[in-house]
């Protein structure tokens, strides 16, 4: 999604790093003298050799030697000189005084603020404002991540410092070699997931967007499970995920997420992680195929966790065509639920095997939602976080979305998130209905101040339109079902999840 290329900057920072490293490296005046001498000799030899190749005439002053013979002689000499130099250099023992060198490495560690205010005007671009000096590992179509230790980190571990929950520029990060961790640092064993979330971990859409890349990493790295999570929002620590998200992660990783609170650590005491993975770009960079595989894994794990059958053919409760009206209460609910239920019920009854179910997202447990979605082929719901549940339906299921008045012009690109997740998780977004009527706003229709009037408006209905729309979607689902039965094989049966 972002095309920022860190190649140039990385090159530069590598060079800088080398220069900084020089005073600590294995350095001796004796060695440099040898190297200097070798260079001078090699230079002279090269001159002689180039004379030979330029003048390979019979009248050459060295007629007894053919150019190739002289070249091999030269090589032998060169090897000898090099061997001597290296042999002479080897007595310089780099590990002779490891303690003082490690102390120097330790003292050279610099902690930088997690939130870099220089980038507050583009907090999500490229290296972002979170750990802004670090670059992500990027592979075509795969999730973007940082891993420590790793080749890009030159085998250094990630260390964090600070427990601020209000301002991320008071929390810090640094890299350190395992043998030279910062003074007084605590080393935490196992795999640590470090998450950046620009919004929050309570809203199920924003929460899922932040944790989804970790599931992608897990799937790609032999299903390795995290020992702990460190959650950040703008560099500020967070100690909780919403219940729904917490349970989804428990289902996916087979254990409730342990969210690190650093209770046993002083505010200015660094913590280093044996192995850490950092995510700050959500699903950005992933191909549609990869995203679908990750949602497949979470769906599968959630169904296993909730004892819901993985395959529709194994379920006795499952209708041929399940149509679910997922209701909201309060903001963005239907103004006349009875009327809306009536329209869809009427259309559903006309189709053999169709069953209409009405559910309220606010009073369903996580597993009730997982189960409800496993019975659903057509999800009908107002715009809102409860729609995130759509990825829990079988692939290729249908979604119908409803907006109150005013959203099209004023709500910005964020209003399309459920179109996106439909595409990413392999669902079919069957369009939307926007209520032409609703709250009235004292300003002109396009004034951004009107959004506060429209944001949580109620949603009316248009019987003619809803009925026609429902007929079309039902017809498509039915046609697809017939086709599947015709080929006998149907949808590929799902018996086990990718990670076990
Ligand atoms: C240089 O050292 C290598 C390995 O120790 C050896 O194989 C090679 O023959 C040596 N070259 C000469 C010219 O002594
Ligand atoms: C270098 O020094 C260390 C510690 O004094 C010693 O254990 C090691 O054997 C030495 N290595 C060489 C190549 O002399
Ligand atoms: C390390 O901890 C000791 C004891 O708590 C303290 O006196 C010292 O100042 C600390 N050193 C650093 C660099 O924080
Ligand atoms: C799933 O079934 C197992 C065994 O039948 C039971 O122990 C577990 O509590 C069930 N889980 C849920 C979420 O219902
Ligand atoms: C809701 O719609 C039904 C059916 O169209 C109608 O009978 C009822 O009066 C409506 N209720 C309200 C509160 O408008
Ligand atoms: C769920 O909530 C809806 C409205 O908020 C209410 O009508 C319904 O009775 C509730 N169901 C349960 C099982 O609590
Ligand atoms: C209801 O929808 C139909 C079909 O899309 C449309 O022709 C009609 O104008 C709509 N009615 C209202 C009141 O918006
Ligand atoms: C059914 O599946 C098998 C194996 O996956 C395949 O070889 C066969 O062609 C399929 N049959 C139909 C009618 O799609
Ligand atoms: C979903 O639909 C596409 C295109 O119709 C089809 O290729 C694919 O096999 C379907 N996937 C599943 C899991 O039904």
UniProtKB/TrEMBL annotation:
GO cellular component, one term: Golgi membrane
Domain of life: Eukaryota
Keyword Membrane: yes
Molecular function GO labels: pentosyltransferase activity
Compartments, as annotated in UniProt: Golgi apparatus membrane
Mode of membrane association: Single-pass type II membrane protein
Pfam families per the UniProt record, alphabetical: Glyco_transf_61 (PF04577)
Annotated transmembrane regions: 31-48
Record keywords, A-Z: Glycoprotein, Glycosyltransferase, Membrane, Transferase, Transmembrane, Transmembrane helix
Domain annotation Glycosyltransferase 61 catalytic: ranges: 260-400
Protein name: Putative Glycosyltransferase AER61
Source species: Gossypium australe
Upper lineage: Eukaryota, Viridiplantae, Streptophyta, Embryophyta, Tracheophyta
């Amino acid at each position: 999604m972002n095309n920022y290329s860190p190649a140039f900057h990385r090159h530069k920072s590598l060079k800088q790093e080398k220069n900084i490293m020089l005073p600590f490296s294995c350095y001796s005046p004796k060695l440099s003298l040898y190297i200097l001498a070798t260079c001078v000799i090699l230079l002279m030899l090269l001159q002689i050799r180039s004379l030979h190749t330029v003048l390979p005439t019979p009248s050459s002053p060295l007629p007894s030697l053919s150019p190739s013979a002289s070249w091999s002689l030269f090589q032998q000499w060169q090897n000898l000189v090099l061997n001597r130099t290296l042999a002479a250099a080897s007595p310089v023992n780099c590990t002779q005084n490891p303690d003082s060198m490690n102390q120097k490495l330790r003292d050279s560690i610099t902690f930088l603020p997690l939130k870099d205010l220089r980038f507050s005007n583009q907090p999500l671009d490229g290296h972002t404002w979170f750990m802004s000096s670090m670059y992500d590992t990027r592979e075509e179509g795969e999730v973007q991540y940082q891993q420590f230790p790793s080749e890009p980190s030159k085998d250094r571990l990630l260390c964090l410092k600070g427990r601020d929950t209000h301002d991320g520029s008071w929390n810090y990060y640094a890299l350190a070699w395992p043998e030279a961790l910062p003074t007084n640092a605590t080393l935490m064993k196992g795999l640590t997931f470090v998450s950046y979330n620009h919004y929050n971990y309570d809203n199920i859409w924003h929460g899922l967007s932040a944790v989804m890349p970790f599931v992608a990493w897990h799937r790609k790295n032999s299903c390795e499970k995290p020992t702990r999570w460190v959650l950040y929002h703008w560099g500020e620590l967070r100690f909780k995920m919403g219940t729904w998200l917490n349970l989804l992660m428990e289902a996916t990783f087979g254990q409730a997420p342990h969210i690190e609170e650093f209770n046993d650590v002083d505010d200015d005491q660094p913590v280093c992680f044996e192995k850490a993975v950092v995510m700050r770009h959500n699903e950005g960079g992933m191909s549609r195929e990869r995203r679908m595989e990750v949602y497949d894994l979470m769906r599968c794990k959630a169904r296993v966790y909730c004892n819901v059958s993985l395959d529709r053919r194994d379920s006795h409760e499952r209708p041929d065509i399940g149509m679910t009206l997922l209701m909201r209460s309060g903001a963005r609910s239907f103004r006349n639920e009875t009327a809306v239920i009536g329209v869809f019920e009427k259309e559903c009854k006309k189709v053999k095997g169709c069953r209409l179910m009405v559910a309220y997202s606010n009073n369903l447990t996580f597993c009730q939602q997982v189960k409800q979605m496993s019975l659903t082929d057509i999800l009908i719901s107002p715009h809102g976080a409860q729609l995130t549940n759509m990825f829990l339906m079988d692939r290729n299921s249908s979604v119908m979305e409803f907006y109150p008045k005013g959203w099209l012009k004023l709500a910005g690109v964020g209003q399309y998130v459920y179109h996106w997740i439909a595409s990413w998780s392999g669902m079919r977004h069957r369009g939307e209905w926007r209520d032409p009527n609703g709250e009235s706003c004292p300003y002109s229709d396009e004034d951004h101040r009107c959004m506060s009037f429209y944001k949580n408006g109620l949603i009316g209905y248009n019987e003619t339109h809803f009925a026609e729309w429902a007929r079309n979607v039902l017809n498509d689902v039915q046609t697809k079902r017939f086709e599947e039965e015709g080929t006998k094989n149907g949808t590929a049966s799902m018996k086990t999840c990718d990670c076990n």
